[in-house]
UniProtKB/TrEMBL annotation:
Keywords: Signal
Protein origin, superkingdom: Bacteria
Leader sequence residues: 1-21
Protein's recorded name: Lipocalin-like domain-containing protein
The organism of origin for this protein: Sphingobacterium spiritivorum (Flavobacterium spiritivorum)
């Protein structure tokens, strides 16, 4: 019995470690959907989603500022960088509670090709799932450049 419990524990550890493993086909499909620059006019916010063959994650740069900041990033009021991982047809940004505090977020594409960026509340740095029972922040972005 003890041996079975140990094997189950090891199996769970292995599964959790590979939960965000990125396959080449997943990366290629995700890249077609998400790569580019997106803008949320309502909140004066922009994101750039990029893929690098040497990275095991998707890089998301998020900044505030008008359209002029897209051409000249030095004009941006505030810029943050995040790691996202491909999970199915979504990009997942795990919660971070170390030197860069960030809530768990999910990024998806709506039927009308808008980017839906949904996050837990800004003080929730521990849950790695969308906690719909509490307040979540949702932002809608439109692609402005591939």
């Amino acid at each position: 019995m003890t041996v079975q419990i140990r094997y189950m524990f090891l199996l769970l550890v292995c599964i959790s470690q590979s939960a965000y493993a990125q396959r080449k086909t997943d990366i290629a499909n995700s890249k077609k959907i998400y790569e580019g620059i997106w803008r949320d006019n309502t909140n004066n916010r922009n994101i750039s989603i990029s893929y690098d063959s040497t990275l095991t994650y998707v890089l998301i740069n998020d900044w505030t500022g008008g359209l002029e900041t897209i051409k000249e990033r030095s004009l941006a009021e505030n810029t943050d960088a995040y790691k996202a991982f491909i999970k199915g047809d979504k990009l997942i940004m795990p919660a971070e509670n170390d030197d860069h505090h960030a809530p768990y977020c999910e990024i998806s594409i709506s039927a009308d090709k808008l980017l839906i960026y949904e996050c837990n509340g800004m003080l929730n740095f521990t849950d790695n799932f969308l906690k719909k029972s509490e307040s979540t922040n949702t932002y809608i972005f439109k692609r402005i450049r591939d």
